[in-house]
Amino acid sequence: MNYQDSRKLQPGKLVVASHNPGKVKEVAALLGPHGIEPVSAGSLGLPEPDETGTTFAANAELKALLAADLSGMPAIADDSGLCVEALGLEPGIFSARWAGPDKDFGLAMRLVEEHLERAGPEAGRNAHFMCALAVAWPDGHLEAFEGRVDGTLVWPPRGNGGFGYDPMFVPNGYDQTFGEMDPDEKHRISHRAMAFEKLKAALL
Ligand code: IMP
């Protein structure tokens, strides 16, 4: 990774290395006002690489590098997940996989709760969401940023908003879960918001 000559994002096209339309929209909302025009990797027919990294940053970087290399344009990718202290920071980079092939986050949350109960009350219920963002250029230059939000896990899950593990996560300083919270409020304090703030400060 080369952080020595940090680089700015110029107005123009930015490939979003994801096949998730929600992520493309999010980049459009955050970076569109700065003249950045997101293009989805799906619309360019780019493949989705296996997430073989052992950290959030490594996975974001490998996705951004491949998309930049194949498209010849700068590319952005993210990787995120829930890290539970009592579980040795699992599910971590495997957060999506804990939901199984049907992407059943009711199941994933139950699994987390079962593991917490097995760990016992003294292990505590602290957890954090992590988000890594990486921007890569076709010449292999990389810039990466991480955001984190700390909180505790509740059971049973509460609220229908958000996605993934939101209904069992209460951020520190709040009473509501991410699933109960007004979406604008979540987007203001989330791990993803923190990572984007750092990215904007460095690259725009
Ligand atoms: P990714 O799309 O590979 O980054 O997978 C991230 C997974 O982590 C998602 O499928 C969710 O399970 C979990 N996750 C990441 N961010 C959040 C969040 O803000 N709320 C709830 N779950 C999240």
Task: Report low-confidence residues grouped into runs of 5 or more.
Answer: none
What is the total domain count? Answer: 1
Q: Write down the secondary-structure element order.
A: EHEHEEHEEEHH
Q: Structural class from helices and strands?
A: alpha/beta
In this entry the ligands are: inosinic acid
Gyration radius over CA? 17 Å
Number of helices: 5
CATH class: Alpha Beta
Estimate what percentage of residues fall within beta strands: 15-25%
* End-to-end separation: 20 Å
Provide structural commentary.
There is one protein chain. It is built from 5 helices and 7 strands; from the N terminus they run E-H-E-H-E-E-H-E-E-E-H-H. By secondary structure, the chain is of the alpha/beta class. It has one domain (3-203): Maf protein, CATH 3.90.950. Strands 1, 2, 3, 4, 5, 6 and 7 form a 7-stranded mixed β-sheet that branches. Strand 1 (12-16), helix 1 (21-31) and strand 2 (36-40) form a beta-alpha-beta unit. It is globular, with a radius of gyration of 17 Å. Keywords: Hydrolase, Magnesium, Metal-binding, Nucleotide metabolism, Nucleotide-binding.
Brief write-up:
The chain is α/β, with parallel strands linked by helices and 204 residues long. The protein has helices at residues 21-31, 56-71, 105-119, 183-189, 191-203; strands at residues 12-16, 36-40, 75-84, 90-91, 126-136, 142-153, 169-171.
